[in-house]
Fold:
Amino acid sequence: MILSMRTKARQFVWGELPSSDIERRLLLKIDWFILSYCCLMYFTNYLDRSNVNNAYVSGMKQDLNMQGNDFNVINTIFTCGYILGMIPNNLMLQVITPRIWFPLVQLVWATLTFGALYVLRFFLGMAEASTFVGTHYVLGSWYKSGELGKRSGLFTASGLVGTLFSGVLQGAVYKNLGGVAGRSGWRWLFIIDGIITLPIALYGLLVFPDVPATTKAFYLTEEERLLSYERLKCDHDVDRRPLSWGLVKQVLGRWRWYGCSLLFAVSGETESFSSNNLMGQWLSSIGGYSVEQVDYYPSGVTAFGIASTLICATWTDYTGVRWPVLLYMSFCCAVAAICILIWDSPTAVKFFAYYLAGASYSGQATTFAWANQICADDNQERAVVLASMNMWNNVVNAWWPLVFYPATDAPRFKTGMITMLCTCIATVATTFLVRYLERREQRSTHVLVNKLEATT
Structure:
């Protein structure tokens, strides 16, 4: 009885349990080396993005004489570079091994972090585009469906830790380094971010294991390398093939690209609460809060996002069902928007609303784990679909904040809150659409398999 409960507890926490000692050792090794590097890489990736938001309310606006929607323009410039780099970066992983490509682009963005704000944000976006979708592609290449949710959640949470740490770091830097060597605190933040990134890139170059079909990792035995490949063959396409134009026809000829892209293009906009630092802008606009408080208090949004992400990812691996997480996320964001729309509500209610909106982050890991699962039978299609999901979300992000969340709408963001309610409704509808298409494909595949078995 006790042993059974312990087994169930382990399965709940880590997903599908390994079937042998060698598989257990393999999972321990790849968990450590893949997740440690990818999480650190994504931490620095998100740290850089969050630094712009925190710097804006910590002196950058005044130092650079930023007016009107200049802040939104900076984010849009970054987003444009991010969009253009998305699919090419993921396709490069089919040509150049991840062990080389990830550290290379990380070195590029670390160098660009030290540069001018407006011009280099575009190229920084192109370099950083490799991290999120590239890592989800690699995770889908190493893990079974029952193992994937938790690992995707840990990876996504690491980016949120970067956001959380950025607020704390900005407050500490503003207080202790502001004015040192003639530089403002927010300038020191970008310098520290670049310095942190460089050793992590070197670590990836030394230890990242690539993908099962090509791994030469020194810490894996020959038996473990073979197992990493064989254990996925039953329901994954693990072979590497040359790229060809036939891939375009193949991807556009199925529902997966359209359905998954639409799902994240819509659901990703629930993150507008956090990605545009609405709470920080609200606190800064209403006054009465110090710079340190404006930096620290929005960290609660991220903290709730981390908790939601890990709990939901754990639950999806245990149950094998992904889509309900998107319903939970939509409900939380709708409640938050309603609370903020009722402007006469107490300040404590608005704090609650902004923190509750952190649940929007829980959809990231789940949506990409779901897409990895849907496209598991085609390696190259999976790479394109994952990249396209984030690409289309960022195509929307390029103009969405300018229209619905301009900085000039602070502190109320009335138009944005109404838009958020509509986004939550659209997310629920799109979730049910993708679930329907997935089940229809599964039924068709099952019928085809039965026919083939009947003829043999």
User: Anything to note?
Assistant: The two ends are 44 Å apart (CA to CA). The mean pLDDT is 83.
